[in-house]
Amino acid sequence: MTLQEIYQAFEERNNAAELGGGAKAIEKQKEAGKLTARERIKLLLDDDTFVEIDKFVLHESQNYGMQEKRIPGDGVVSGYGKIDGRLVYIYAYDFTVFGGSLGRSNAHKIVKVQKLALKNGAPVIALNDSGGARIQEGVASLSGYSDIFYQNIKASGVVPQISAILGPCAGGACYSPALTDFIFMVKDKSNMFVTGPDVVKTVTHETLTKEELGGASVHATKSGVAHFVGNDEEETLMMIRELLSFLPSNNMEDPPLVPTKDSIVRESPELQKLIPDDTNLPYDIKKLIEEVADENYFFEIMSQFAQNIVIGFARLGGRSVGIVANQPAYLAGVLDIDASDKAARFIRFCDSFDIPLVTFVDVPGFLPGRDQEHNGIIRHGAKIVYAYAEATVPKITLITRKAYGGAYIVMSSKESGADVNFAYPNAEIAVMGAAGAVNILYRSSNEAERQHAVDEYSELFSNPYRAAEKGYIDEIILPRYTRSKLILALEMTANKTESNPPKKHGNMPL
Ligand code: HXC
412 partner at 20 to 30 Å CA-CA among 159, 173, 190, 196? Predict the structure, then answer.
């Protein structure tokens, strides 16, 4: 063969490899309303930045006539590229090849990318669309999953790991996404379950569709497995790009600084009227977050799960911050099991990647009741206080209204290690509300005495001054100055260095 013929043969092989399972399988993928693995990567990454590796990898299975069916790349497209000019590693299951199922060979490809990401300090993005373990390969496939999970765990807290579920994700395959930091799903198009509808029917006699069992809506609202849901694949992939804009590439780097034209001393007169005079009336904490954030932009995470607590990223003076806020507009902002889990994991993520925490507190306490107690609110609630106390990033707290009881302590109080604690003049910082306190202290008093006691307790404790007298609150501020006060506090703590005592790792309540 001449050199030219060799080059041409290579190009033909290359083009064939890029067709994955072939034209017919691609057509089926389209009919299912899904993009191909390569289309997804192209959409996600900056133009012309994708470098594919292991394009010609083949499986070595000899069972079920598999030796006759060897497709270059073996059902996973992997490599690296850029998002907003920054390096990322990526792998995408190709459903057109054996249903994107995982075998020993394509698991090696994934592990190679994971190891490169860890070594070179850049995020890993997994695009899932797979029938799970490749049935023809038996235990070799399970070994492949084990290797992937192992790398997920080694990389946890070192590089951000992101999973998008763009089709089925069944069985043990769910655990790699579950071990990553963020899971994205597509509305009505993707699903995740450990055991599928058929097994469920056999074991529990429940009849459920895939969507009912593990669709995006279930995982975004009920299970708390999914962090983001896009309306379609394109929107989902764009959300991944956006998320990465808030994150550093690894735990040794600072998050990107995004210069803003939004003045750091911008005042917010409307915040003076956000909180109702009647302390029992709700207001939307997201309005406050959006008002103080750069360009009024808040990137919310898990917006439909445990809505009594709000988490997400924003920028203040160009710096990424993780926001944790009680939501008085949902269940009065009470803390419950799901809210505790949601907040604690997010706090730990931010701490892992050096993203300062800004906490807005308006919390009447922990949700009482048998359901919560029996399901372990003690165990789950402990996670928030653990996560805040363990976090060594700058921690800024603002009490906007109520901070009662244990909920005061856990929501980034001074005593749990916060660096700067603000309160609005209307803040109520006490063991409990005045009516509750009087019910206990003046149980046998008459109505007039009780009313007097309520007034007295309110006067004494339903304000921020007792806490400020003791230095638990550093500064009482007017709502209109919130943005500049937060930014100044972040600037003041920007070079914070603090570390926990040397240990293998703590034993967080799980
Ligand atoms: C090998 C598979 C496969 C698998 C699908 N295919 N799943 N091949 N191993 N796990 C193949 C199909 O045979 C078919 O091949 C092609 O992929 C497309 O699949 P379809 O069924 O035609 O597609 P669709 O109707 O869209 O259904 C998709 C699906 C279904 C819901 C994912 O294929 C399915 O239920 N697959 C099995 C899911 C499963 O039980 N996986 C194992 C889970 S246990 P042809 O040649 O016909 O095109 C597990 C353990 C891991 O993962 C544990 C790790 C710790």
Answer: 159
352 or 434, which is more confident: 352
- Asked whether residue 20 falls in the same domain as residue 60, the answer is yes
The predicted-structure confidence for 194-241, as pLDDT tens digits, reads as follows 988 998 999 999 999 999 999 999 999 999 999 999 999 999 999 999
Between the CA of 151 and the centroid of ligand 1 the distance, in Å, is 24
Question: Are 438 and 483 contained in the same domain?
Answer: no
Identify whether residues 59 and 127 lie together within a single domain: yes
Domain that holds residue 208: 3-244
Give the per-residue pLDDT at 37: 98
Q: Do 110 and 116 touch, CB atoms closer than 8 A?
A: no
CA of 170 to the centre of ligand 1 (A): 9
Using only the alpha carbons of the chain, give its radius of gyration.
26
Mutate to test the pocket of ligand 1, among 135, 141, 209 (most ligand atoms within 8 A of CB): 135
Is there a single domain that holds both residue 308 and residue 331?
Answer: yes
pLDDT score at 297: 98
Total structural domains within the chain:
3
C-alpha separations of 293 from 257, 284, 312, 325, 408 in Å = 14, 15, 12, 14, 24
User: Per the domain annotation, does 249 fall within a domain?
Assistant: no
| Residue 168 in contact with ligand 1 by CB distance below 6 A | yes
Domain boundary among 196, 227, 244: 244
Q: How far apart are CA 366 and CA 331, in angstroms?
A: 11
